[in-house]
Amino acid sequence: MNTNATHQEATGGATPGWWTEAVIYQIYPRSFADADGDGVGDLPGITARLDHLADLGVDAIWLSPFYPSPQADAGYDVADYRGVEPLFGTLSDADRLIAEAKARGLRVIVDLVPNHTSSAHVWFTEALAAAPGSAARQRYVFRDGRGPDGAEPPNDWQSVFGGPAWSRVTEPDGRPGQWYLHLFDSAQPDLNWDNPEVRAEFVDVLRFWLDRGVDGFRVDVAHGLIKQADLADWQEPQEILSGQEVDKPRPPMWDQDGVHDIYRQWRQVLDSYGSSAEDGRILVAEAWVEPAERLARYVRPDEMHQAFNFEYLLAAWTAPAQYAVITRSLEATDAVGAPTTWVLSNHDVVRHASRLGLPIGTPRPNGIGIGDPQPDAAVGLRRARAATLLMLALPGSAYLYQGEELGLPEHTTLPDEVRQDPTFRRTGGAHRGRDGCRVPIPWEADAPSYGFGPTDASWLPQPPSWAEYALDRQRGVPGSTYELYRGALRLRREHGLGRGTLRWQESPDTVLSFTNGGLTVLTNFGPDPVPLPAGAQVVQASAPLDDAGRVPTDATVWYR
Ligand code: GLC
Description:
Layout: E1 9-10, E2 23-27, H1 29-32, H2 43-48, H3 50-56, E3 60-63, H4 91-103, E4 107-112, H5 122-129, E5 142-143, E6 166-170, E7 176-181, H6 196-211, E8 216-219, H7 259-271, E9 282-285, H8 292-296, E10 306-307, H9 310-314, H10 319-334, E11 341-343, H11 352-355, H12 377-391, E12 397-401, H13 422-426, H14 466-469, H15 471-474, H16 481-494, E13 502-504, E14 511-516, E15 519-524, E16 538-541, E17 555-559
Parallel strand pairs: 2-3, 2-12, 3-4, 4-8, 8-9, 9-10, 11-12
Antiparallel strand pairs: 1-13, 5-7, 6-7, 13-14, 14-15, 15-17, 16-17
Helix pairs in contact: 6-7
Bound molecules: alpha-D-glucopyranose (GLC).
GO molecular function: alpha-amylase activity
Region (Disordered): 413-436
Pfam families: Alpha-amylase (PF00128)
């Protein structure tokens, strides 16, 4: 790549703190480890497996929601923000998990879901029982319908999960009544963030978990809380991504300027619990916002600490695309003095070991199922290992999703009957949805449910191929994906890569190369093997070098 090398230098973080270089591991509690054998993972299961994470060498864990919830959206429909769903355990299990994690030097981030509650939340029950215009209704977004009988939704917005973003209620007197907004499932009514009562409630929820010792919050749909006041129609198809280009209007439901006031207030609350490099409590935005400069507004010095870099996650596997997104991301966050946050997989997207096995240029799939074009598993894993090794060498913070350290692919042949993601139902099956990345992970090749729990039960079926990915098949095996991750995390720490400075090196068009922290990193995207400079000492490689000591296709090496 011709990288104008002299101009490209970026640090990935101006104000150092533990979070600016942390590697944070996402745990999806339903699918991590099941202590009680009911087929659904739980908090005691996580606690019992914390040693795995300490051995792996991550700095922190982020727990997807474990709060009381009817599970209409796998826990992102919260009925009570101050408790634990019985499926997952008790509040004392949460306290124990936090304490045990800390005892192993792992920080703990919990998920906060402020855009919407569950329809089972007491506030929504009160809203349904109350009259139009009442204080109870004003905690949500209720409106009269359009048309003579109010039988048409108040505007044309669509739900991210498919279908209309409005549902009509039956008034207490039995007549068809108002409509409420839900950008996601109808069991997830959107809150009205213009209401001071809503703001006060969430400050209190923050304090509740901060008092229990958490180190921060991952903020769900952080770009959605404020809607354009007139709720204007939006003729475009609905996507969670703001998709906003400089010359295009911004969707009225995403990335409104008003959201930033909320995060400024929260930042003050968090800072009152600790703001130093060691004890800072952090906010990380799940904000599907483009371009990078617009996303960077969420991480200005008095707002959040991090924002997931989805533009990076979505970038094509080519040298120019990766160069462009890395450069843009570093520049945008450097401009506001925040760390860049790298991520390749999470519970909402096709796992990168499968995504990268699809032909380059395939649009982002929303799940893969039987009958869909299948990824090439070998190519996918090979590229995933190369991509991860590239990512872990970049300055800034990185997020890992449970199972990726095993090279786990998406379950791409999950029968439709077992799918639980509301996306599948609400799109009439047009989108397979996200179940394939949420299948319980394998720990032991020969145990029931591959060691997920003590029984065969698993809330989504695990494919037979899971045995070969099990942790006990990979631990101590040179070249395994697990050992690749573990080795890379150790070297990343030793060389201070997370707080280092990236300097691009001149390289052929299908190669990316840069230095950071005394190491040189090289990724070969091209068809031909690439030689290393004479005397190069390879310290980590995503694939073996060829007989001539060259870097093969779809491989990354770190060398001195
Ligand atoms: C976020 C979550 C996703 C959830 C949605 C609605 O995008 O990551 O899993 O379905 O918000 O809460």
